[in-house]
Amino acid sequence: MDYKIGSFNTKNLNYNSNKDVKKNFEKMGDILKKENFDIIALQEVMSQSALDELVKRMDDSLYDKRFEQSRSKSKESKEGYAFIWNTKRIELARKNVAYNPAGEPIEPRIVNQYRTDPKFRSQGLIRNPYYGRFTPLNCPACEIRLINTHIMYGKSAALKDLTDYAVLAMRKKELEILTTQIYRRMADDHMDNCKPNYTFLLGDYNMNLEDSAATGNRMQESISVDDNGHVMEIYTVQDQLTTLCISSAEDGTFSEETGRHFKNNYDHFSYAKNKYDDRGLGVKVYHINAVSKHLNDNYEEYNKTISDHIPIALELALR
Q1: What is the pLDDT of residues 49-70, one digit of tens each?
Q2: CATH at residue 54
Q3: Beta-carbon neighbour count of residue 298 at 10 Å?
């Protein structure tokens, strides 16, 4: 059975607008529904009401959703995460299913507890991730676990004295915490049930893979994790470009910088690739050019009414 998991930075999804930027909830909902995601993780969701409006436009009789705002260390990093899922194919994982098939659902939550390196200046993540556990209705013997993250791009007021190189090093350190501490712990957690799980870190990393066509802000493809005495390699995938080429002008107008529609490869999935390959898990990842596919190549309109990112997808073939 195949499942489609998505990630999408919605660029300050709220009701606030001005003469240059106004969210088109109808069109955004139409795009997400037509892409047939089973689960999609959203970043930069600014309110529960904005998420409610988006899901209403998708069809709230078919989709369920959850929203939570992450604790942040600055007003610049304050934003929310969301999960949306197709209730005909997916439900929240449940506690103690071996003894009670209709057990209590395990609600998504912000991950606030993890180990950090005291020598690292931030003492942890600037914006903590959102963790959700889901069960495919046609494959109830397993779980899909998602760690939804948005690694902060800019410098907060508290970090304004850091160089650009130091900020990139901080992003890499955050990814290290997300993989070696949070991913490993969530993938190995069997306290609520003993189902096999497929765990993915996903979201906006604000860093480019070496093999992408983007320049600068490079990140490593894999990170080695000590998994109870065994080495687990966590690979980051999805090397296609995902952010629009936007001018620095305050009005946010579109410009085809360097002759390209897209600039950065910031949106990714990370997972224990070798471990899952050994299980026979099929994984395919790609970006979705929603501008061309759903908005007739109108990049300026897309930037003003939808986002400065396009969605990414991971197709998961469970055997």
Answers
A1: 999 999 999 999 999 999 999 8
A2: 3.60.10.10
A3: 14
